[in-house]
Amino acid sequence: MIPNLLFDVFSFILLGSAAMVVTSRNPVHAVLFLILAFINAAALFLLAGAEFLAMILVIVYVGAVAVLFLFVVMMLDVNFAALREGFQRYAPIGALVALILFVELALFVTGSTIAPGAAAARLFPTPDTITNSQALGSLIYTNYLVLFQLSGVILLVAMIGAIVLTHRDRKRAKRQNLDVQHARVPAETLTMVSAKLGAGAPMPKPNKETL
Amino acid sequence: MSAFLQTDLGIAILTLLESLAIIVPLLLGVAYLTWFERKVMGAIQLRKGPNVVGPFGLWQPFADAIKMLFKETIFPTGADKVLFTIAPMITFGLAVVAWAVIPVNDHWAVANINVGILYLFAISSLGVYGIIIAGWASNSKYAFLGALRSAAQMVSYEVSMGFVIVTVLMCVGSLNLNDIVLAQRHIWFAIPLLPLFVIFFISGLAETNRAPFDLAEGETEIVAGFFVEYSAMTFALFFLGEYANMILISAMTTTLFLGGWLSPIPFAPFTLIPGVFWFLLKILVCLFVFVWVRATLPRFRYDQIMSLGWKVFLPISLIWLVLTAGFLEIFGLLPHA
User: Fold this and answer.
1) What are the φ and ψ backbone dihedral angles of A184, each rounded to 5 degrees?
2) Is the ipTM of this complex over 0.85?
3) Coiled-coil stretches, from where to where (chain B) (predicted)?
4) What gap in Å lies between CA B270 and CA B209, rounded to an integer?
């Protein structure tokens, strides 16, 4: 009884916050509702017995991706009026997508499966004896090793791309080099000059390396 | 009775009682941690610390709490009132819910789940939201700057913390916190994984925004950072949340590296003492180091914090991860759970 009740609560909050993501006027509120939706989705994963996926969803999406998303939205000066202008133009496409989703949902809810034998013929049924992080690991690192490595390479390429796009060589920036600073001795930086009265001493040349 | 405990109502009541059994001591611990910190810092700085309210100043935390309760909560003009009120609740609530999985003795945890350490990591990665929401909802540039600083800092240090946790998991072969402690029967992980232990503890200081990484509040440059606009009970919740997080990080360090509830001296008279005692003692030692560090070290500069996290801790923890994996593989020590 308790799992059913929890399922109702979590899915209700999930749907409500998902609706709020698209309807709330303030973009920061929208992102926060998105985060609430993620957390409730993780709770649903948990109820389905996929505890590893649930935790990874929270760690990766809520803990890292959404933080950066929130950062950007908070810093940007978004013009809401301009954002709403295109609403009527895109409304038909949105309605079409919603209709397709609705039909799919209706198919799913009424229990009419397209391929009835699919569940029985599944290649790797959920194991009972080991935890699902172990089950997932033993699949990813054996049968799907190439695909797994490939997705890693794609992420690496994306990372390098982002760095290349945003990296600028700031020539005028003053950087602190700790090793150079630590290697300084008084003889390099201090010179004693005897100044003549009324005339002063000639300025010594500044050493660029030790700035 | 045991049949009743199997029913839905029985499970609900039992869980409620178990939660109370962990939350009440935790809140008392948080209250007395503030007293402990002030006493220890007083001793380090050759002062007496609180000594007026009650014997040895023991009633001081309660006096402070009552003062906070009776003050007025001020909402700044232009603040987002709902988010402004929710932010401290998030901070404090997260610091409390994380305790659900921490084993204080063998199998003594409210929820002994298979992915315990991932749960802790997930909860601690959510901690940034309380701060960032507080900074944004305050509608003040100092609060916002503090929030941005601390968000960037927490995200950075989580990366190396994650690698440290993965290395420990490789030595254990399980994500269950109970198994992690039991795997340390012969040797605490703090000894073979000493560099990682140090990295984890320092990252913990950064995660909890404690000195010397307390740039988020940096009173010398941004007034008091993200909670500059907070007063009364909303401020108190941030304050309590920070201390609860300190205890949480100490408990995580204890569980991952210092053998949890296991006795430090593994023979007869010492193993008879209940594990809860050893667990609390180890937490207290960690907390003392937290306070000691705060009283000793000056605050880091922001770019130094970032370069420490990304250029020192991340490479070291990554290399240790690979080295440990190689070592375990070559000597056939990989656990087969």
Assistant:
1) -70, 140
2) no
3) none
4) 36
